[in-house]
Structure to design on (258 residues):
């Protein structure tokens, strides 16, 4: 219980159910898969039956020791003790499947998607409310992080989970979120840092958003940043970045802080 209180992580208790979730993914014997916050190894074990190699990452030393004991018979599982947010990520292709600590959801998604070599696919069990902010939809707004990852990843909810799938039961609804690398990403990798800056500034500073050429993409003045489509944001980035306007936006933001 101490672990849950400190890390807001709830563990799936049924290995058969976890195996069902893994079968919904694109993971095959050709893949290296990371399990972040592996706990006792229920997910790592299910991944081992399907993936070529599993890297089970565990932050808490006591849990990592138990995890290592549980994985001794699985030759394709490597246990790594440490903080995933600071560890070096691979330069070769890899995927991620994990039931992550809820309070670290944003940090983990950013760590993965902003890496020099982002994963081919990311499958995360997260709070439903968090997942919906990453998914493009006309029925609800998309958050800044959803817009940031959009050019690189197609994001969707694969399945809703029940609270009784965990022990102890969480007091929030959860889902299995799938983030799959686009065959042709909407922006070149070299443009992603400036695109992220544009999104972050526009979502957090109304003055920056007001300066964008929104009429050029058919956006009326009263619309909020979260109400624009991904295509509109990508076009706005091209309009601003190609004209060197991003530098001016950054300068204006600095002036307003003085």
């Amino acid at each position: 219980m101490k672990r849950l209180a400190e890390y807001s992580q709830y563990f799936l208790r049924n290995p058969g159910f976890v195996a069902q979730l893994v079968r919904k993914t694109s993971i095959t014997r050709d893949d290296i898969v990371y399990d972040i916050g592996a706990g006792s190894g229920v997910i790592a074990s299910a991944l081992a039956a399907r993936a070529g190699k599993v890297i089970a990452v565990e932050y808490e030393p006591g849990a990592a020791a138990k995890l290592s004991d549980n994985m001794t018979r699985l030759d394709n599982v490597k246990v790594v003790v440490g903080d995933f947010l600071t560890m070096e990520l691979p330069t070769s292709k890899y995927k991620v499947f994990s039931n992550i600590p809820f309070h670290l959801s944003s940090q983990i998604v950013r760590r993965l998607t902003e890496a020099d070599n982002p994963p081919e696919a990311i499958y995360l069990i997260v709070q439903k409310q968090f997942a919906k902010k990453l998914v493009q939809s006309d029925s609800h707004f998309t958050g800044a992080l959803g817009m940031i990852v959009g050019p690189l990843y197609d994001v969707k909810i694969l399945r809703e989970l029940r609270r009784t799938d965990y022990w102890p039961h969480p007091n929030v609804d959860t889902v299995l979120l799938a983030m799959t690398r686009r065959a042709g990403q909407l922006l070149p990798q070299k443009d992603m840092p400036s695109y992220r800056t544009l999104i972050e500034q526009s979502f957090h500073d109304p003055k920056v958003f007001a300066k964008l050429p929104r009429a050029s993409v058919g956006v009326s003045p009263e619309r909020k940043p979260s109400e624009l489509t991904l295509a509109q944001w990508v076009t706005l980035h091209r309009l601003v970045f190609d004209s060197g306007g991003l530098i001016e936006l950054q300068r204006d933001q600095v002036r307003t802080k003085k």
User: Anything to note?
Assistant: The radius of gyration is 20 Å. Residues 81 and 244 are 44 Å apart (CA to CA). The beta strands are 11-12, 32-36, 53-58, 77-81, 95-99, 121-127, 153-161, 166-167, 174-181. The mean pLDDT is 91.
